[in-house]
Every structure is written in structure tokens, then in C-alpha cells.
Amino acid sequence: MPRGDEIMKARRMLKANMISLSDYEQMVYDKTKEVVQLQEDLDIDVITSGEIERDNYVSFISEKLGGVTQMSMAEMLDYVDDKREFENILTTLDVPATSIKNAICTGKLEYKGDIVSEELKLLKSLTDKPVKITMPGPYLVTRSMWLANVSSKYYDSKEDLGEDVIDIYKKEIKNLQEIGVDVIQFDEPVLTEIVFTEGRPRTFMCASLSTRKDPTEELKFATHLIKSVMDSVDRDKSICSLHVCRGNWSKNESILLTGPYTPLLDLFADIHADLLALEFSTPRAGELKALLADERINNKMILGLGVLNPRLDDKEDTEGIYKRAKEALTFIDKDKLWLNPDCGFATFSNRPVNEYDHIREKIQSMIDARNKLRKEYE
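Below the sequence we write its predicted C-alpha cells.
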């Protein structure tokens, strides 16, 4: 969710030692409380924290793990082999090279006991409803941290780095489940980069921008990382969710990826997720049938159907959401369908794609559609 000017200013002041850590934490608490109250007022079933303290959806891990340093895209340019292509990509994708940060492996990874555990404790202190905690997925983390000219001093390959990511995630999952969490979601937006860019990732979401990789090889690697982490989740305690979208950094839809989930079906079937939270509000995501006609997916896991485009200011039509859900229900049982936004409303703290007045209206449309469906089916 959008952090707001006060939180953004407080982050800068904290780094400059102009405010105390306790004052900053109080501001994060207050803003998180607002976000939780908003969700409760809207009668959302599963509450999230809003990720208020995170710099962005993945770079915040540089503040949580040893052996990781936050670099701007401009700083990374010094270590990228194909500098011209790197610059061209950032320009094409409307990315400010100095403001977007990435967490880069600059040493052996060290788990310090918290990635999102403290965020979960804060969330649980603010609500009695079921809660979901979101984490950048292990493939996203491994890919985004691997900058060969730096990281290879500490790991022989990104595959070796990935094994340490798996070990750290297993420890964090154990902590999360001891605290108590209803849904653990792993965000893997980079999966669409593999299959819709012909093996040549072109996004700032990965440090290895100019690397050419075979999509089959990369999907196998991603499957290994995600499955290894998900297998460590005790399903008696938590639902294990995978989120996939096609980019959420710009309101310019023309620069975001397009393609159905078909190339990812094998991965979806192999990782043993309980829930797939997928972007579906835009035609760029393809047809529902491409996903739900697959017998390995159909009624084998819950579909978190994306019905809100977070980048559009206008609220979605309740009837349109209702009809989209009804379409999904021609393939799956009612207990296998959840409704959710396609993605977050502020992937980057300094670059939100929407604001609270619009967000409230959009979520209300989704809740109204949910209520209509429940009245019909329950």
C-alpha cells in the first residue's frame, strides 16, 4: 500500500540520524494500523500489513540479511557488462535509475532472525482476523541479488546462492509459523519475464539484465527454489500461496508483459502450492480457460482471481467482477475461488501506482461482488 509522505520523509531522516529508531517505528505502527483498519472497515476476509516499512517489494531484504547491499540501478551500472543495453532497458521501461533500488549479494548470506517476522507480529497485534504475510519469492530474491561481477566473489554461481536462499527461507518460515500465520505468500513476478521475453530478461526486477538464459533451464531452476521453500511450510498451520503477475511498476500498460499462464502450468503443478494468486483483470493475462482447463490445476488448488487492476484509478464495475468470478466457477468449485487485486498498489515505496481514495473504491467493488456471490452460493 502507499506509504505516504510522512513515512517516506521519516525513512530519509532515519538514515540521516535525524530521528530516533523508536520514533520511526511508532510512525510505521500508526500507518500500519491505518491500513489494517481500512481493510477491516471494508470487511476484507484476510488482512495484510500493507508492507509499510519496506522500501520495495524485494530490496528491503538488504536491511534484513547479512551479505546483502542495497544498490541503485545507477550504481549497478558500474558492474554490468552490457552497459548500453542496461541503460536502454531502463529508458524503455520508464525506470528512474537513481531512485529504484535492488538488493545485491555482496558477501555470504547471513540470516539474522527476521525477514518479515517482526512485520507479522505487528500485524497480528492489530487484528483478530486471519492474516497473510507476503515475501519476495526465492527465485525473485536469488535472481535480483545475483550481480555476477560482484556476487561471484562469494558464490560460484547463482545456483549456489539459491541454496543459501532456500536455507534462510526455511528458517524464516519456521519463525512465521511459530508466531502464527494463516497465509504465507511468495511473490514471483519474474516468472513471466522468463517465458515472455524469449530467454532474454529485459526488466529491472532482475540484476542480471543482460544475461541470456534458456527459458526451460530457468524454469527448472525456479521450480527447484520455489518447491524447496514451499515444501517446508506446515500446511496444517498455513496456506501456502504463489503470486505471479506481469509487472506493476508503471501505469503505462503498453510496457508491461503480455501472455497467458500456459508456459507456467508445469511449474504451477510441480511446486505444490495451496493457492495461486494471479493477475487476471487485464486482457494481457490471457483467458481463464488456459489455466483452469488443466486437470493438474483445476480444483487441485485455490485460485486467487485477480479482479482489480491496481494501476487504474477508476474503480472496477461490481457486475464485471461478478461475471468474471462466475466464469471461473464454471471450471472450479466455490471453495476453490478467492477474489483479490492483481498486485499491490505501491510496489515501490517512492513510486505508488494508486492512492487511497481510489483504492478504497476499487476494493469496495470487489467486496460487493463477493457479497453477491456469497448470497447466491451459500
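Residues 206-210 have pLDDT under 50 and may be disordered.
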